[in-house]
Amino acid sequence: MSSNLSTTGPRAFHPVADVLQRSLRRFDITAMAIAAVISFDTVGQIATGGGEAATWTAVIALFFLIPYALLFAETGAAFPQEGGPYVWVKLALGRPAAALTTLMYWVTNPIWLGGSLAFLAAETWDGFVFHLGSGTVADYTFKLLFVWIAIVTAVVSLRHGKWISTAGAAIKVLALAVFTLTAVFYGVRHGFHGLADTSFAPTTAGFLALVPILLFSFVGFEAPNAAGEEMHDPQRDVPTALGRSATVAACCYLLPVLALLAVVPAHQVTGIGGFMDGARLVFSVYGGAADPLLKITAVMFVLALLTQGSAWMIVSDRMQAMAAADGGFFTRALGTFHPRLGTPVRTNLLSGAVATVFMLAAMRLANGDAADVFAVVLTVAVTTLLLSYLAIIPALVLLRTHRPDVPRPYHVPFGTRGFLLCAGLVYAWILIGSWSALFPGVLEQLFGIDYAFHDVWGVSRASFEAFTLGTVAALLIVGVIGVAVARRRDAVRGAAGEGGFQGAE
């Protein structure tokens, strides 16, 4: 590991440096983080946990979100190279580990886009805007359009694409604020009946059920660093932007969940329809204007989901493209950035293809049962993303302890001890969340908690594990093959003196 990597001088040398355009300022970074992190599709899923969902949301915000944001604020400012987490893991653990980690991180997003986001968008459109049906030509067409519009918005240049993320962030915050205030107004007029049978007391069963989805909801603040060399001043802007976006995200999860539970009994909240079903109820306070307002909210909801997927495609595709451009995954050609757009068009198209395949597979998983598909596919996305942090967090620790020479414009409070404490807390949460996502019900059985698998997931354990473990196993195989192919190509090209990131090994 070389120590000559500059983090404060000119951008690092790599094959795509000449086509990157600096277009992200502090406001843009904040908006991108908000657009990526606030997940409309998880609000209803979190609320299915009942009153204790609000309790655990607050606990995890305090003991996970804050230390997590501190870790990435310091690291993101100190190592602002394009590719973000790919570069960090490579510096600490080497190129093969970085390539496998990036694959897990990246593939989460096309899986999520073609899975839970597309299904929730279609369910919302079908129920509130225009009837699509389930498994119909209209249903397939809508989901395909949803996927590929998100991909197209990621292909456009970042100086234009950032406004799509900004619009998505604004729509999310506005919609959640309107819903929360309307729910309060509804409760004042009709009573907060949802609270009658809701207990906020935390339980072990609730903890184990909610941890994976809550962690998935709160991670992603490092995502803008994937475009680190497209920021004007990452050393100053990243820490401030992460602090602001983390605060907004915590409020945008906790307050709507509380509002939803206050007016809708917990046993009536569903993961796929929770938010919009709650909106249907509380919007009745607007009388004759309720139906058009509900339809407008549904359109905003779908647009927010679309821009959410787009924001993740923008950042995660850059990570995967940088891994390929650096010779870490199959072919460097996959990491080519368009000379005019400055975007990794080939990786964008690959994401679209993966999202499409996964959407088609998910449609067949439960014979078109959207609610069951939504939950299982969301868990697959949760699993692959959380697994990537099992390498990213140790990499941050190694960079902190082994690279004291790198200037750090921002420091976690209490220096190295504070950094290690934050990393330990975050890693412990990630371990619990990863295990619970991969093997739901196992920890419950250890604690003597009854767990009816089919009642919870709508599919058998065999089908669930085949889909989740099969996806992880397939990705690992693809990743190992990709690393091996890239290494062989580099061996052949080595005589020509072609390399990757200067000082990154």
How do the strands and helices of this protein lay out in sequence?
Blueprint: H1 26-37, H2 40-47, H3 51-78, H4 85-93, H5 95-128, H6 137-155, H7 158-190, H8 204-218, H9 234-263, H10 274-282, H11 290-325, H12 345-365, H13 370-402, H14 415-438, H15 442-446, H16 453-457, H17 461-493
Helix pairs in contact: 1-7, 1-9, 1-11, 2-9, 3-8, 3-9, 3-14, 4-5, 4-13, 5-6, 5-11, 5-12, 5-13, 5-17, 6-11, 6-12, 7-9, 7-11, 8-13, 8-14, 11-12, 13-14, 13-17
Global Rg: 22 Å
The average pLDDT value, as a whole number, equals 83
**Unreliable stretches, pLDDT < 50, 5 or more residues?**
1-13
Overall helicity: over 70%
| Major sheet attributes | none
Structural class: mainly alpha
- Would you count the extended β strands for me? 0
Give the N-terminus to C-terminus distance in angstroms.
Answer: 5 Å
Strand content: under 5%
Provide the succession of SSEs: HHHHHHHHHHHHHHHHH
The total of helices stands at 17
What does the overall shape look like? Answer: globular
Brief write-up:
The protein is mainly alpha-helical and 505 residues long. It is built from 17 helices and no strands. The protein is globular.
